[in-house]
Protein 1
Amino acid sequence: MAETSVAWSDVLQAFQQIWGYSDFRPPQDAIVKALLEHRDVLVVLPTGGGKSICFQLPALLQSGLTLVISPLVALMENQVQDLQTKALPAATLHSQLPPPQRHKTLRSLEQGKLRLLYVSPETLLIPPVWERLCQPQLQLNGLILDEAHCLVQWGETFRPAYRRLGAVRRALLAVRPPGSTLPIAAFTATADPEAQRVLNAVLELRSPQVVRLNPHRPNLHLSVKPVISEGQRKGSLRRYLQAQGDRAGLVYVRTRKASEALAAELASQYRVAPYHAGLSSRDRRQIEADWMADRLQFVVCTSAFGMGISKGNTRWVVHYQAPCTITEYVQEVGRAGRDGKAAEALTLVSEPTGWLEPGDRQRAKFFESQTQALQQKAQRLISQIPAVGDVRDISQRFEHGAISLSWLHSVGKLTWVSPFDYQLTANSETSQRLQASASQQMHQFLHSRQCRWQGLLVAFGFRGEAQQLGGCGHCDNCTKHKPAGRGDRAAGFR
């Protein structure tokens, strides 16, 4: 095991001085130790698990720079502002910064004044930033990938630069003295065994220490309500909202169109706004701020909302339309009850056959067709591009060129020689089966009579904990006091 030059007593003293805590909550201490020992780490901690402290503290205790790769401007700025109020040397770079502030941060980077620099995966790879990071004299302590599940998830918010991050370490070490190390730590609240495999492979993790806590939240009540018509779906939502009074929450839908339409319908009765990836960055930031300050009671949002946003008094989450995967589901219900007090999550679903209310089935087919269209574009691209090339050139020449290259990488038909240069390969594996199984797994979860939390634990690889839990006592299936039938156990989310 690698040695660390920082005494543990000094770690605890810094933790007390900066954050005011006398000791860590397990497994925070194990993560801090691993990062101080310059080890690769894969961390799966439930929402509200205090993961940011786990990489911020080691960064501040060492000389040199730790890079934090994060998906959202709001998430980066919230963390940096918190650090700066403590007079700690942290900064962020993103496209919305005024030029003077951007230049000031780049100068601080060059002069070695920063301990933490937050960037998006795209900003990391633009010339002004990348060229400075490649300076051999710049001491780099590690790469932190926050919200690492973004690398695994496909959809309208997918960022193709994520698939190139595995080549970043190789490129940065190539310009540094022999024997240099650059550990990678990936943090997420949700990663099932398959997602962990993908993160390991794409990031090229080296014998990582894996730290996982199961996602069970005893304060969060889960329930699913079938509906037999769109009218019943709307009526169920309205009755639920009336019962909530003025308590803060979130309503999740699957499409931008549904976000706009449902928010407009509810605006006459509630302080509500739509939120999706099609809004301008300024509008999204304003809606986030209004919700955090209780100027909005809730937001009708797509999966684009919520990552890294912590509002402790969120008492409820409604999935007006069911998510496509269990990973999305756990991410989104995890917005509720972060203060540890009782909270609830309701999912409205089409009745199982889909004949009376085909909405869920139609949405699933829509997203499936989008995925197939992307795959077909990527397959066509193979015959149009050179076997070896530069992603920047392909992005300029072909619509959706960068995301097509990322797709080819995900199915084993392409490797990244560097963060910018690709090489086509003859290998291939299929991800269609994985996509289908994820959708099927979600369908089984929603329509099962098994304990909801037990099903989630099994899905995320915590079989032993699921057996120990038995019935959680705080989901709709457990509170009905109906034992799972043989068919439910057989479909137990393998």
Protein 2
Amino acid sequence: MPSEDTTYETTELKAIRGTESKAIARKQQEGWELVNQQKGRLHTTMIFRRPKPKTPWKLWAALGAVGVVLASIITAGALLEEDSATSGAEDLAASTAEQPSSPAPTLECEAEPSPSADPMICETSPGGEPCRFGQTAIYSDEVRAGEVRLEISVGEPVKFTPSDEAWVLYDRPLQPVSVYLPVTVKNTSPALALQSWIHSQATNAQQGEYDGIQSVSDGDIESVAFGEIDGLPVGESVSVKDGWNMATLEGIEYRLSIDGLAGYDIKFTR
């Protein structure tokens, strides 16, 4: 017989009329007690109760004590770890302070060469600086038919000894020095065959253009080297040996005039 201090929990169950006994037996097996029922036209509503289980206070107290102990252990461990980390940081700071400071490394940046600074290429323009023997001059100009673009390479002057077949204009006597300039002209125009003529002239430190320097021909060395350059197709090139006879090679310079007044001069020096 339950005591007066017993507390209960209740539950409600609806069963179809005629199945009440089965529902009651099932609930009684679960420890429920039928305390009331109300019959309706289709259903019977039944109220059940059973004593609430007593709270295991001793177990909860023991678990609480264990929790307090675990919390204390965790807290102590965290404090020890923090103290250890702080001590390590202080030791490291002290060690660093004792060591002589070394200067920060200086990063040296080397200047990168310009990608267009090819020593063998000479970009030309009207009135521009002269090119050097051995370089390739890039000539570009606009004409009525379109753009004319040439690559002109001039090598160092090459001395030669004229043969008996050597020829100079007006059969003038030969001077002490005879040289030829190896010249290659390539037509790199976008679409035009070369419709230009090129006039060449050599000078030196003693003689000007009209002071005795004369062109010379001897075998494959030509005095009018660029006479057949007109009509050079796009992408094609022509190489010649442009011959000159003079008193000295000192201060020699070589000038190419493209289309006379229509173009501009390119000068080569040492």
Protein 3
Amino acid sequence: MSFEILASVATLSNLTAMLAGVMLGIVGGALPGLTATMVIALLVPFTFSMAPLAALLMLCGIHAGANYGGAITAILLRTPGTPAAAATVLDGYPMAQKGQGRRAVELALYASGIGGLASVLVMIFLSPVVSNVALMFGPSEYFAIGVFGLTAIVGVAGRSLLKALVAAAIGLTLTLVGLDPVTGYPRFTFGSMDLLGGVPFLAALIGLFALPEAFRRSARMIGQLREEAPHFDNSHTSLREIGELTPEAVKSGLIGSAVGVLPGAGGDVAAFIAYNEARRSAKDKSQFGKGDPRGLVAAESANNGITGGAMVPLLTLGVPGDAVTAVLIGAFTIHGIRPGPLLFETHLETLIYPLFLGLIAINILMLVCGFLFSGPVAQIVRLPRSFIIGGVIVLSVIGAYSMQFSMFDVFLMLGFGALGYFFEENDYPLSPIVLAIILGPMVETNLRRGLAMHQGDALAFLSSPISLTIFALAAVTVWFSVRSRKATFATTSNA
């Protein structure tokens, strides 16, 4: 890359576009309901008058910023701003409850930056190779990926694996609601038009994670039980801790990049896979789910690692890697650019190289902006409890309503809130439900397509070396997770 390419990126208009995109993304990601996809879709029309490079850099800045922004409310309020932040709640919120809100927000920022930079490097150096591998994926391989993702249920099960399996079964059952993905026939909709598209994921996510905590705190206030705000530690994350967590951040960022290359996968899938891998490979697993920084870093690095990975099939094949890049294809088209193999021949120095450099600059800008505002943002946990409860409920209602502008989604969210409250009061984990809702459609669709392709022969799923390898990894992961669970809980019981 020449100096001229660097100069073409570092113009005032491009830097302004990147900064605006990052800030809009952080704000949009932090507000439940305003996902990166929605914010980008809303702002694409405003890029008509912009230069193509500036427009794409702003939209990519929104993507990166939103992935980090979703962690802010996930950590401080237990309300995931984006679906990809569901795994961040597992250890991020317990850290905030221990008074480590600022440290958790900074760790999420750092992990997001590392994951984003790792994904950009993957995109730069491995685009042709990785895209060719992605072309080899069919129903058998995607089914294996879904099964591998479901093995994370063992890692987030808590003390009772049976209760986790019950929760996962409920989640998988919910994915059957809506139109059949193969035949298009309505299933379990009970005549409701609102359920034809399936159970709204965002309504379920917000209801399961945000409302139970609000219900619990409301019950304590009604019962006149005093609940003090958690102690707030205003100290920054130390350089030593950053150094210790860097290998985990890099590994999880690469996992996110690999998942992002697969069309149809997303940051939520990547985050849970990376979280499970972090727990599996850790020597001490006892603190996962209780405020372990390794779990937070793994989830955040992976869901930001998706940004560059999802761009690989977009740029090289013209195939979107996720919902955000599907919208970005529209932005490319609007500006007269056609993604695909010819893009590297016709726009290599005018668009591809500048875009690569711009994505690196975007992640650096995100680190700077996030660090400047991490202190004031983390002060949310010091607000009066009644104010936080009201804010969580209002944000939850707005988030559920804003996706489809439907009150049905709001009532459904309240129902999931009641379910989540009941589950937590009876020590059932909520994460397996969310994980099953995320991966269920992928598993079912590709299982049925694979069986149809091979005339009902289930052994055909093991005929592909790629799917066989993934199944083997899933089996090894389950074996290690079960073994580590026994060792962890045996040690806890003896203590």
